[in-house]
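Listing S7. Sequence submitted for prediction.
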Amino acid sequence: MPDAEKRHLTRLVITCGGTGGHFYPGLSIAVAAMQRKIEVRLLLSGVNSVAQSRAAEAAGINAVVLPEMPHPGSPAKAWRFIRGALGGWRGSLRELGNFAPQAVLGMGSFAMTPVLIAAKMRGIPIFLHDGNTVVGKANRIFSRFARAVGCAYPPVNASGIHAPWQLVGMPVRQALRACAGIGKAEAIAALNENFGAQLDADAPTVLVIGGSQGAAAFNSTLPAAFKALPRPPQVLHLTGKNKLEDTRHAYVGFRGRVLLLESSEHVEWFLGAADLVFARAGGSTLAELTLFGKPAVLIPYPFAAEQHQCRNAEWFVEIGGGRMIDNSALSADTAMEMLNASPAEWLDRAAASRAAARPDAAEKMLEMIENHIQ
């Protein structure tokens, strides 16, 4: 179609819910849409939807909270699931009718079910985004009704996608993208100023980050490995909620500098300061590692659906960005083995990590949608 006749995307609905791994990439796409003068609205469902709506509003994005639809994992939840699904479907029909979007984008998880059913009934084109190497069950099912699917990483189960798919990358918050070039000295200075730390910009620095809930294995095992090293590194450790004191106790006797916090809204300072990262292997974590060009030792969460964190970690190892330790094999000895690898190896892995970054993922997703609404 000639450019003069091309139909531009002007109104978009994004449905996301459940975990932050679904919500924040959706919010990043919404912000990118707003910057392109596209009217956008989020339809949210799930246990965190109220808090997520506040985050959306703070970013200048209109958000509508739909009735909660808990996963029907037990007979006791079945009625709440049905009631939430019906309420969400009615609310979605109303919102889609009033807003009249040209497309609906689902970010994964079954929380998007009522919105996508309503979109199908109203004849609105459906698009999907998946944030892991294993395309999730909900996305595989709804791909039968989708115009196209955007993938954050090369899908290992591409045969389960029943629509055209494109590698677009994992959308990352604009605030992180803006800080991706921060230098180590600048990041260390920000940590010292804001947290009263006395970190050394010239010292080898390891970041431990186990996600918002933390990782008990990280908080006990990794301090033991650090303490056993003849020349301990400088450590930045985000422990997770309510795990700070136990982790502080694990560092008793550690001879290096350490900054311990439950969490931080300024992950860019921590990533910018780190020479090596120990982390889980969620899709957003890998996107942030590549954006900042950081090598990592990944310990996948063992109970992730369909072992998707293991597949994510395998991809990161394959592109040369780091190594992987199975959660059951994590010990002070296996962690020390990683820490004792040559600095040259980690520098090479940092370069490989940076080469895999896709900082324009949100824009690529919007372009894919626009190309398929013609």
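Caption to Listing S7: primary sequence and predicted structure tokens for the chain studied. The first strand starts at residue 11 and ends at 17. The chain has two domains: 3-171+359-372, 175-355.
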